[in-house]
Design a protein that fits this description.
Largest sheet: 7 strands, mixed
Shape: globular
Helix content: 55-70%
Oligomer: single chain
Distance between the termini: 6 Å
Length: 855
Amino acid sequence: MTQANRTGVSLRVVVAAVGAAVAVAVPAVLAAVGVTLWWLLGLGAVVAAVAGVFAPGLTDSYRRARERGENTRLALARDSLVLTVREVTDPLLLGVHPARPADGPGNADGASGRVPPYVPRDIHEQLVELLAGGGFLLLVGESTAGKSRAAYEAMRAALPDHTLIVPRDKAVLPDAVERAAALSRCVLWLDNAERFLGSDGLTRVAVARLIGGPGHHRVVLATLRSAEMARYTDSAHPYAADAAEARQVLEQATRLRLRRPLSTAERERARTRVWDRRIADALEHTDEYGLAEYLAAGPELLNDWDNAWEAGHPRAAALVAAAVDCRRAGLTRPLPRPLLEALHGHYLTRMGGDRLGAEPLDEAWAWATRPRRATTALITASADAAAVEVFDYLVDATQQAAGPDNQVPEQTLTGALAESDATESGEIGAVAYGYGLYELAARAFARAADLAEADLGADHPETLTFRSNRAVMLSPLNRHEEAEAEFRTVLQTRIRALGPDHADTLATRTNLAIALRGRGEYVQAETELRAALDGFTRVLGPDHASTLATRNALLVTLLSRGQADAAEPEARAVLDARIQLLGPEHPDTLVSRHNLGTVLEYLGRYDEAEEELRMTLESRIRTIGPDHPDAAMTRRWYADVLVSLGRLEEAEHQARTALDAETRALGPQHLDTLNARSELGILLRRLERYEEAEAEHAAVLEARTRLLGPEHPAALQSRNNRAVALSHMGRGQEAAAEHRHVLAARTRLLGPEDAETLRSHANLAVTLGELGRFEEAEAHARIALEARTRLLGPEHPDTAISRDTLAACSEIRAGTTRPTASITSADLTTAAPVRAPHLVRRPSSRRPGSGAGRC
């Protein structure tokens, strides 16, 4: 990584939602660089419509109530539960987790036999007051934090005579909203609200219709797990998708957070209820578990699942694992039994296969669905006997375990995709993208687009967003022309439907510019970006996140054209704006500081670059930890500038530290990890440890060839890098053969004047010159120089490389210079832009457009 590859700028962008989809499209403004845009993939909704079932716990409770003859006034109206609040005497009916059974005197009066007495939480009085005022209230917390119980008890205290409407799923939500809007006093109950969000679910318009205006007292009362909330609001969340509509719906809510652990005051209130032995028992464990967590037996069920692998129930454990991962993949509806039966074999094999002595399938299902201590089962049957729900506590616990070994297997993602609706397909695409499974991600977004088009129409914003995200996936698959065509189609549709200055239209224009830059069409890309920047500035203002993101995209394009002097003021302007708007250590501010460091390195101002990158690295270590992939990415860049300063041993330490961190976080075969390993190989060459460098490049070449194919740009770059190392090892004939192979492939795949093709001409010229074949070397150098001068301009660093190489070859051939080391070094290529350029969390390339640079 040197001057020509110092143009890659890691640009995390957090773009506020504007209109229906700008929160999805605008982050895509940074294409050939690393961008932490986990919410870009969100395609209108994070979760899917839940068809044909009640909320978890609701169906079984309702059925039991009917069988007991209790709650006789319950009415199922248009697939929603409708009754008065005071009539709901069993909180399990609304999704509250059942507790372990009572086992002593004073513990069997009505519902308290299945739920313990309520211990008022610290937010209780505030929640009652807010409910009395009406509006949209959202309780956020982990599974088994007690959200549903707190909402239920506060609702009964504040609004006993209101009509309660509980829709079974997103499909019937519009009808439930209509019913609620016709009443003057009602509560719309949305437990596990992720099931109801999205452009085809709860919308801003629906919320405004329910809670806006005078003459009524209507309440939307919802709960949401913290992990689901992070999908919309946490810019550091790695894999989740975002929906602009859903984000804006949540922004309308008054949000209260409920923690699992009890506060000191809550413990004191609990001690007044120790006449219930369950409360007394739970209090003895509150140093380790939350009250609701312990009462719902969450830790015990998790332990049962862990033990099942070696305790005679491995097939049951595998069914649970498949169910958990299907939820993590993006399926939110009840999970079909046949799907879990088809997927669970992979988990059995991974945990030991035949050695486990798996039990029969019927026995496994019976064990997995058996309630523990009369509480929640690991898996519970839904209203449809062919589908099941998995205890969300297990999902949370699994999701919180970080690392590549915790990833959802590709087989599970593929199986889940076949059962997904449009929004679920989009979420699966987001997860697949996060794992570097671009082919699968492209299929998922294509399915999402097809389903959305069939349901919503070809011009619907959600359909267009799915199409746009599919186009994003095409770039790392080396299908650049297809990506450009798709973006042009989306752009024209949005111009027609929304107008040229709509934020979504401007975002699409930026996406198109990035696709053009990926093809090496820098002039066209700059034209599109300046048009988008002008539009964003006029529509949203110069300091809006979308405007700043577009300036970042322009910055990268300017660097791609060798215009570093023009890029520096853009980098400084964006950094200054983000410091003022977000603070000095906001993740996006740190990205901008990182960007400035890379620009300064490109300009050869290495001391300044070292300072900016060191400050960025220190801040990221302090805020997100030394092993976070974003910190590792900055560490890799910092190593690069240390090389430029001649601090090679220090640079090697930083590079190896970064590689170790990415290996732990992402796995040894992840494309980002391979990128880091390739950069280490380049550094080893700079240290003149050529055998080690060649070994690293050969290993990366093997992995990239296996994962991406032998003619993927990343594989060709690894072949190029290995050839450079071979040349330094005195194996010039092998090096020349490798360069010829790469040149032929790039000419065929990319065209004779693509930047990578010209780089292969330049590299071959250097190698041939070292072999003393100066006439051939001069011919290849001349091809590279003439094309680079025409395409990049005479002052571009790549043009200068070719000019020096040609001059050296000509002088040697003319006999005016000795044939020594005066021929310019071959171009080494760094990590290929194999990550989706609009969406990547960290850079996969140091050079926008080509991913290559002169060492």
